[in-house]
Amino acid sequence: MAKRVAVIDIGSSSIRLAVYEKTSRFAFHLLNESKSRVRLSQNAYQNNNNLQEEAIKRTVDALRDFLTIITSYKARKTLCVATSALREAPNKQEFILRVKKELNLNIKIIDGQKEAYLGAIACANLLPTQKNAISIDIGGGSTELALIDDKRILNTMSINLGTIRIKELFCDCQKIDEAIKYIDSKLEVLNDKNVNTIIGLGGTFRAISTAILKNKKYPLNKTHAFTYDSDELNNFLNAVLNADNKELTKLGIRSERFDIIKPGVMILQRILKKLSIKKVVTSGVGVREGVFLSDLLRGSKDKFPTHYNTSMRYILDAHVSEKNFANLLNSLAKKIFDLTYLHLGIDKQYRKDLAMAAKLYPSGGDVHFYSKNKHSYYLIQSALEYGVTHNQIILIATLCKYAKKKLPSSSHLQKYALLLPDTNTTNVLSYLLSLSISLLVHRPRNIDFDLVFCDGVLKIKSNKKLHLSKEAVEKLEAITSLKIEF
What we know:
Blueprint: E1 4-10, E2 15-22, E3 28-36, H1 53-72, E4 77-82, H2 84-88, H3 92-103, E5 108-109, H4 112-126, E6 133-138, E7 143-149, E8 152-159, H5 163-169, H6 176-186, E9 197-201, H7 203-215, E10 227-229, H8 230-241, H9 245-251, H10 258-274, E11 279-282, H11 287-296, H12 310-319, H13 323-344, H14 350-360, H15 372-383, H16 390-401, H17 410-415, H18 423-439, E12 450-454, E13 457-461, H19 467-475, E14 483-485
Parallel strand pairs: 1-4, 4-5, 6-9, 9-11, 13-14
Antiparallel strand pairs: 1-2, 2-3, 6-7, 7-8, 10-11, 12-13
Helix pairs in contact: 1-3, 4-11, 5-10, 8-10, 13-14, 13-18, 14-16, 14-18, 15-16, 16-18, 18-19
């Protein structure tokens, strides 16, 4: 696979570009993301699905600019897919040949099942594991759904139900009752589905979740993996349906979505009515990431290796030059946790978070030594994007921010109270990371001491003096439930 890959997704409402760069076999990061709201399907549904010249011209012009962006990044491969608007257009070949002639760009039209599958593999690989879930991508012309359970894609569905379609066929002529009947008839495919979690992807759902996130003053500005309950979603959807444009702005809906947000909300409300949903998970990834992953993981059955996290690997590739130290710190932190977690009253689930924090802690040092903690904290909050919950992101970032310093401040704990575990757990994990760093302050090639834990005392045994380690441990803000002896 090429090191840099561009993916173009031609949808009914918008066309989107993403340029990805691999940093190792399965690790990657995003170099560029661009979007143009070309409304390719505008007025098509009123003209037997034929694409209209004005919309075609807008799309060709935007694609031309996309190709300039791709060239600037020297991407060696470009994958371009088209969905509902082109699938249904009788004049699609005319559009495809025009793009090929003018831009030398090959477009692959994917069917609805493939579109649903691509969105699903993005969610299954790049979100925290979800059980008994359904992914829903409400587009301009169609809606794609997939049943996902523990990273397995069980079924995919595609229905001719989209925001622009509903707007032009029903909402523009105020046929709301007919719209609801039409939506309900298309959603009969969900009659026998029993799921409790919705994974929302696509522009409509992200716009809704982003507004909810901002309205509740959520402490982390990250939409991907933002999770909330179905009551919050229902309440917000009702508010949107009853709002005028001024009120939509106050709710956090951007003006370019005013004409299609309500058709999207109508579709989503009818879906919620069909299913017994308790949890809502927002996906910041979709078809573009699915196209990229299907290329990246084509020899791995469209799955990352077990226990592999692509975001963590990217941070290690790009920002941790001293990987041996990161591995030692990771091993030591896990050893100390295993010896002490029962005594300290810490749930075993936090072992993984502590281990990740230990491995990522050195990342900020590659930016600036004296502000290592600050940069590690920022990198983790920003770049630890995929496969982890917001709770994990904030906890791991917090542990790195306060490593080798005092325990987390009360103001920090208060700011992130919604996402952090209880204060005792956070403080204990913070201390264990700081202790691990302090014990390795002399930078050994291998761990050159043994650990023995008994009756609340962790004994450090070595045939070396460990002078620097003793000094570093003495400087730590200790926790009363654990004593250290050399």
